[in-house]
Amino acid sequence: MTHTLNIIGGGMAGSEAAWQAANAGINVVIHEMRPKVATFAHRTGNLGEMVCSNSFRSDDSEQNAVGLLHWEMRAAGGLIMEMANKHKIPAGGALAVDRDPFAESVTAALKAHPNVSVSYEEITELPTDGLWIVATGPLTSGNLATAIQKQTGAEALAFFDAIAPIIYHESINMDVAWMQSRYDKGETVEEQTAYLNCPMTKDQYEAFIDALLAAEKTEFKEGETAGYFDGCLPIEVMAERGRETLRWGPMKPVGLTNSHDPETKAHAVVQLRRDNALGTLYNIVGFQTKMKYGAQKTVLQMIPGLEDAEFARLGGIHRNTFINSPTLLDHEMRLRSQPNLRFAGQITGVEGYVESAAMGLLAGRMAVAELTGQTLDPVPHTTAMGALVTHITGGADAKTFQPMNVNFGLFPPLEGVKSGRRGRKERYKGYTDRAKIDWQAWLSQQEQPAA
């Protein structure tokens, strides 16, 4: 058996899978179609490019499931977390990065590894020989998507994803906006002032909702029937669900005090988060949109403080593809009908950068075990990694399968802890304590990676 692992796709999952396998002494070839074949969302040919948010979300490994996933990836020597730490920028309790240097570092680390090579070409058919990981993400090319559909005999599932606009900081009116993380969260002053806040009165909010609902929007093309992923809804869709929806979502005013007018409580607040280390770019948090470009400028400049905003990138919408993993993949993420192929990342139906990279980490380690004849114990269901992989490979209902972020609802229940909101803090700490012990035990049973 050859000791070469081929990976299709150089995003979060493909990059992490390659790193794990290469560090275990396996020769890896990453097949990445960019920049020769472009996608709607990518701007470069870098590996690990972030196309939507620049945030890996909460970094709290005791009270948050995604923070626990960060911890598990760090414990496993994950490349994505290593480079995220290296290029971290203030974001309160979240782990946000300077996106371009981050991707450049991921690319440089992989290209410098003696066991990794990168081939820039589009793979249009599913290979029948050798061991492969398909990590093409939600923007899988049309040709390969057709090949996957042909092999699985099933219609690929799909949903629509939206991107939030990015604004030049110098164009924001700081006489109106102020810097503060919600509830002053963070251990340093920089973290406690990581977000830029734009307040709205009730009248301003109502006028904004009216304009948002009336704005010209990108419509689906004929034959496109996919829905949205609830964790990344366009603001127009949220507004259509009720006029107060945004005030209870990305525009909630709680935990914030306007430093320009401390006595006046804002009716709603729009938050922006730094998008690069220089602090010259800010993205509007939770403001994914399908408004057409002209309408975006008109509507978003209604936000107090953004009247003269200049946009480095406007928002957009694109179609994301994923497979019905519970029916198609075995417990080691192999395609049942063609087991030389593993699937990893967002194409499997996990949602988010971290979840994608985590499934790449597992796929890489599972492939190493297969190539070297080792027996790899199942990933403990009590860990964040195990909870996710269990969900996509059989734990979810195949009839209603949709993209899923990691969350404590996927974890086996704990005995002897309070249920409900009052017991949540103790319960979450119990989940994370148990997961860390079980994850370290799972890692310790594996052979140490080659130097």
How many DSSP E strands? 18
- What is the residue-mean pLDDT, rounded to a whole number? 91
Structural class: alpha/beta
Low-confidence stretches: none
Number of helical runs? 13
CATH topology annotation of the largest domain: FAD/NAD(P)-binding domain
User: What gap, in angstroms, lies between the N and C termini?
Assistant: 22 Å
Strand order of the largest sheet: 6-2-1-7-18-17
Assigned CATH class of the largest domain: Alpha Beta
Please state the overall shape, judged from the principal axes of the Cα atoms.
globular
Largest sheet data: 6 strands, mixed
GO molecular function, one term: tRNA (uracil(54)-C5)-methyltransferase activity, 5,10-methylenetetrahydrofolate-dependent
Family: Belongs to the MnmG family. TrmFO subfamily.
Organism: Yoonia ponticola
Subcellular location: Cytoplasm
Describe the protein's topology:
Layout: E1 4-8, H1 12-23, E2 27-31, E3 55-58, H2 65-75, H3 79-86, E4 88-89, E5 94-97, H4 99-112, E6 116-119, E7 131-134, H5 142-152, E8 157-163, E9 166-168, E10 178-179, H6 189-192, E11 195-200, H7 202-214, E12 227-228, H8 235-240, E13 268-274, E14 281-284, H9 293-300, E15 311-313, E16 316-322, H10 325-328, E17 334-335, E18 338-343, H11 353-372, H12 384-395, H13 424-444
Parallel strand pairs: 1-2, 1-7, 2-6, 7-18, 8-12
Antiparallel strand pairs: 3-5, 4-5, 8-16, 9-14, 9-15, 10-11, 11-13, 13-14, 17-18
Protein name: Methylenetetrahydrofolate--tRNA-(uracil-5-)-methyltransferase TrmFO
EC number: 2.1.1.74
Enzyme class: transferase
